[in-house]
Design a protein that fits this description.
Number of strands: 3
Helix content: 10-25%
Strand content: 25-35%
Radius of gyration: 15 Å
Largest sheet: 3 strands, antiparallel
Distance between the termini: 46 Å
Number of domains: 1
Low-confidence stretches: 81-88
Order of helices and strands: EHEE
């Protein structure tokens, strides 16, 4: 049993000028990212979905929080694409 608590998170949003209001697209990207990282259902802590209101409509964002198994606690995620939210 671990003597520490390790959790990680990442956030995603669609590009502002390319489908920022397309929630189904964002959820598909979220599923792809969770699968790509290999987050097991037992590791998942929380998923949040929120929106900002822009002049073009809603701009959806999702954040995933997970706690990797002890074996994965030191896993290097540097190769993961850094999600960035672009603003004008």
């Amino acid at each position: 049993m671990a003597e520490y608590w390790t959790s990680r998170h990442f956030s995603l949003s669609n590009p502002r000028d390319d489908g920022s209001s397309d929630l189904p697209r964002l959820l598909r990207r979220l599923a792809d990212r969770v699968e790509g990282i290999g987050i097991a259902p037992t590791e998942l802590l929380d998923v949040t979905i929120s929106q900002d209101t822009t002049e073009d409509g809603p701009w959806w964002t999702t954040t995933v929080y997970w706690s990797p198994d002890d074996d994965d606690a030191g896993e290097d995620l540097d190769g993961m694409e850094e999600p960035r939210r672009q603003r004008d």
